[in-house]
Amino acid sequence: MSVKLSQISHQLEEIASNLCLQNDMKILPSNYSFEIPKTIWKIRSTNSKYVALQFPEGLIMYSCVISDILEKHTGCDTVIMGDVTYGACCVDDYTAKSMGDF
């Protein structure tokens, strides 16, 4: 394993083992993998200040909880995009870019 990959793996483990984060994620259903620690790591590693979130129709009900968790654990501001996705190829990056800093 490369040094960089080892460092990333260590950082992800550190984030995932955060007791406050684990407690915050308890409200989310356990049968879904939202990859919250991985998302937090990505936001932190890119120093993102603004994050646009987009969900498929069946998961939009969890968007506010996920938004709150990300804001609390990264300090970023989030916006939840109301357009429904129909798969990984349906990312609305044009709308996100048109919002400016988001």
From TrEMBL:
Taxonomy, superkingdom: Eukaryota
Species the sequence originates in: Heterorhabditis bacteriophora (Entomopathogenic nematode worm)
GO molecular function, one term: 2-(3-amino-3-carboxypropyl)histidine synthase activity
GO biological-process terms attached to the record: protein histidyl modification to diphthamide
InterPro entries given in the database record: DPH1/DPH2, DPH1/DPH2_1
Lineage start: Eukaryota, Metazoa, Ecdysozoa, Nematoda, Chromadorea
One Pfam family of this chain: Diphthamide_syn
Stored Gene3D superfamilies: Diphthamide synthesis DPH1/DPH2 domain 1
Protein name: 2-(3-amino-3-carboxypropyl)histidine synthase
